[in-house]
Amino acid sequence: MTTPECLTAQQIADYNRDGYIVLERQIPPETIARCHEEIARFREEARGLTAHTDRIDLEDSHRPDDPRIRRIKQPHLNSPVFGDLLHSDAILAPVRDLIGANVRMRASKLNMKSARFGAPVDWHQDWAFYPHTNDDILAVGVFLDDVGPENGPLMVIPGSHRGPVYDHHADGHFAGTMSLAKSGLDVKDAVRAMAPAGSISIHHVRVVHGSDRNRSDKDRGVLFYELSAADAFPVAGSMGTFGSLEEFDAQMVCGEPTLEPRLADVPVRIPLPLPPTQGSIYEIQKQSAAKGFETVEA
C-alpha cells in the first residue's frame, strides 16, 4: 500500500463503500472564474447555431438568437483552461489515491444545467456504456456553481456500484437508461451530491446515478473528467473503444501505459445493438420510456 497523497483513510473507505465522495472547495476561486469565462466564450460560439456540433450540444429550447448550451463536449481538448485543470493535482491526486498512479483519460464533458431549463440526465451506470476489463474507472465532477437541492444535483444510489450492471435497453436497442423499480432500487435511497462552487465529486463507474432538470433560477454547471486505471482496457462492443495503440497511450495523464490488461471478475452487459439515434446521452435516453425524474421533487 502506498501512502495517500491527499485523501484520508476514511474518505477512501467511504468511496469504496458508497461509490462516491464529495470534496469541498478543492478548486481555487480564480480557476473557477476562468472556467466561467470559457463558458461565456462557448455560449457566444453557440449563437447562430441551428444544430449540435462536435463541440457543443444544444438544449431542446435553444434558438439561434437565444443560445442555450446543454453540454460542452470534450472541453479538455477544446480549451486550455479545462485541459490545464485536468492535469492539476487538485484533480489527479485524489484520483491516484483511488485507482493508482497510472491514469488514463477517457473523456470529458461540461453539463451546463442552466437555470430554469437545464435538462435532466436519467438514471444510469456509466459502466453500461463502456465496460472494461476492470472497473477502476471513475468520474470527477468539478462544481462550477453552488450545487443545492433545487438546481439538479447529481443523485447517487450508495453502494449500487457493488451490485450488477443493470439493463439499459429499450425496444431491442441500447437506450442508456434504466428503471429503478424494475432493477429493485428505490429513489428514496438516493443521496444528493451538494457543495459550494469549487468542490468536486468523484463517483465510481458502476454506481447508479442521474440528475433532475434545473428547477431553480441558479445555474448548475458541472465539468466531468472520466478517468481510468491504465490497465483497464475497453471490452469489444463497448462505446469506449480506441483506434490505435498510439491514440490509446496518448490519453495517459500520469504514470505509464501498459500492454497487460488487468482482468477482474466484474459483471458486463454489452451496449448493443446501438440506438437508432446516435449522439450524447441526452439524445440516446430520449429513446426510452423510462423517465425517472419527472416526479422527483427538488
Strand content: 15-25%
Number of folding domains?
1
Describe the global form. Answer: globular
Helix amount: 10-25%
Structural class: alpha+beta
The CATH H-level superfamily is q2cbj1_9rhob like domain
> How many strands, which pairing sense, and closed or not: the largest β-sheet?
8 strands, antiparallel
Distance between the termini: 41 Å
Number of helices: 8
In oligomeric terms, what are we looking at? single chain
Radius of gyration: 18 Å
Uncertain runs with pLDDT below 50, 5 residues or more?
Answer: none
Kindly report the average pLDDT value.
93
Q: In the CATH hierarchy, what is the architecture at level 2?
A: Sandwich
The CATH topology assignment is Jelly Rolls
Q: Which class in CATH terms?
A: Mainly Beta
The overall strand count is 14
Keywords: Dioxygenase, Oxidoreductase
GO molecular function, one term: 2-oxoglutarate-dependent dioxygenase activity
InterPro entries: Phytyl_CoA_dOase-like (IPR008775)
Protein name: Ectoine hydroxylase-related dioxygenase, phytanoyl-CoA dioxygenase (PhyH) family
